[in-house]
Amino acid sequence: MGHRRVGTRLEFDLIVLGGGIAGLSAAITAAERGLAVAVVSKESQLLESNTRWAQGGIVGKSEEDSESLLERDIMEAGAGVNSREAVRLLVREGPKLTRSFLKEKVGVPFTLDETGEPALTMEAAHSIRRIFYAKDRTGEAIQTALVEFVSRMPNVAVFTDHTAIDLITNVHNSTDPQEKYRRTRVIGVYTHDAGSNIVRAFFAPSVILATGGVGNLFLHTSNPVGATGDGVAMAYRIGAEVLNAEYIQFHPTVLFHRDVKRFLISEALRGEGAKLMNRTGEYFMDRYQPEQADLAPRHEVARAIYREMEREDMEYVRLDATRITEVEVEERFPGIFRQCMSLGIDIRREPIPVVPAAHYFCGGVKVDLDGRTSIDGLLAAGEVACTGVHGANRLASVSLLEGLVWGIRCGVYVSDRAPTLDRRIVDSVPDWREPDVVEDFDPVLVNQDFRTIQSTMWNYAGIIRSRKRLLRALADLDYLSHRVEQFYRGAKLTRRIIELRDAVLAASLIVRAALANPQSKGCHYVNNKA
């Protein structure tokens, strides 16, 4: 089909929503197989994504590693809730793709050892060193290389500052009344172009969701501001299955400082020997997890810190990186070192103040081994998708790997089948219709609604949950969702308004899933005495 444009309507062979590792891997794969691909991002530049902010690394291949050992580590971190089939696919294909696709094809500049091979580091809950990294800016190195590679591809068109509003389906959007009796099929997406302030309709026989996670639904997060659950909300509105939404991983160590928000202190510091301490200078993790201590799975470390903060009546704990002796911290972790030094913290001589924060969404839109959702024409990859790999808790540095594997698999699946658009249905879908009366909304009110969602989720659906807290969260979110939906329908569209509508729905899905699961597993911890 190629690329076709008529006014505000554009047609492609494939639409990819999101420009992180999953989305760009899918776009590269499909484009190399001859498809005309649109990559659509709400950010002003494609370099901005959750991928960019990943510090630690991505699982690669170690001589002493094996598929069975990596499978065991992933399953144990995920509390056995993982899809064993998905995990086995990941361990079979993933580490090889880290080398062949990222290092050799795309040219990611991983840190090398003295032999010229990718150096290996350790992170929590891994049995051995198997993680490729680029100092402490692995995500930025991957994202930059992917963006540069895509920019050289003539059949990939990139649309930034385009916020997806809703997926277009035959059932929901066609003016032909017969379509509502047929099986739901995604055929495109409505997007708001911030530059021209108009809504465009993108059409394609296949759409891949790669929109990232939900971290910005919480008051404290390591995620960028764009992580508002858009893909999950859009998919749910058209009837796609959402799975494991209760499993929100909290990163144990985000910098605590009044002047800096969202700055992650990579767990690779603990992999190299840093240890958590409380106000009295006690290294406390041995009390909570005697076997693995500071290298326990993230959910256990985050809960230990939370309890230590409650016990000591502290706003934060401290991470002692002065114990790192095998590497020079300013060389191994230059980004963290420079950021802390700019705040007057010399991590070579003093501990770093840290707090837990919402970090990674282990659930998402349910997909199969090819990335297909329960809705025809819609695929998903990366953090927005639930492949089952992570189970109840993600093993460190596996998320980038999962995005890579399923991004490529989505690209292969779509290009192998190369479906075509049904012209009759596309022509029956109208352009976006604004309400007769459009109102500008006070950004202060919109921001306040966002803060309400974030405070509600942090206090009632955060690291430690209870049925009472979750019921309060659901009541507050239900009340807010009615108000948000009402003013959305009369609002002059902006990215922030669209995100708010998605955020309140995504938050409600998380809370409902948490209420439906009374069993504590992984990063979903229920304490009804709380």
Rg over alpha carbons: 22 Å
Here the CATH topology of the largest domain equals FAD/NAD(P)-binding domain
Indicate the low-confidence ranges by residue numbers: none
Largest sheet: 5 strands, mixed
Ends apart, CA distance between termini:
57 Å
Strand arrangement within the widest β-sheet reads 1-2-11-10-9
Individual helix count: 16
- Shape call: globular
CATH superfamily of the largest domain: FAD/NAD(P)-binding domain
Description:
This protein is of the alpha/beta class and 530 residues long. It folds into three domains: 4-246 and 362-428, FAD/NAD(P)-binding domain (3-Layer(bba) Sandwich); 253-358, Succinate dehydrogenase/fumarate reductase flavoprotein, catalytic domain (Flavocytochrome C3, Chain A, domain 1, Alpha-Beta Complex); 443-492 and 494-516, Up-down Bundle (Methane Monooxygenase Hydroxylase, Chain G, domain 1). It contains 16 helices and 20 strands. The protein has helices spanning 21-32, 67-77, 84-106, 138-151, 170-173, 230-237, 268-271, 285-288, 298-312, 329-332, 334-342, 399-417, 423-428, 443-460, 467-488, 495-516, and strands spanning 4-6, 9-11, 14-17, 37-40, 58-59, 120-121, 131-132, 156-159, 162-169, 186-193, 198-203, 207-209, 242-243, 248-255, 275-277, 317-320, 352-361, 364-366, 378-380, 385-386. It has a five-stranded mixed beta sheet with strand order 1-2-11-10-9. Strands 8-4-3-12-19 form a five-stranded parallel beta sheet, with helices on one face. Helix 1 (21-32) links the parallel strand 3 (14-17) and strand 4 (37-40). Helix 6 crosses helix 16 (495-516), helix 14 runs antiparallel to helix 15 (467-488) and helix 15 (467-488) packs antiparallel against helix 16 (495-516). The chain is globular.
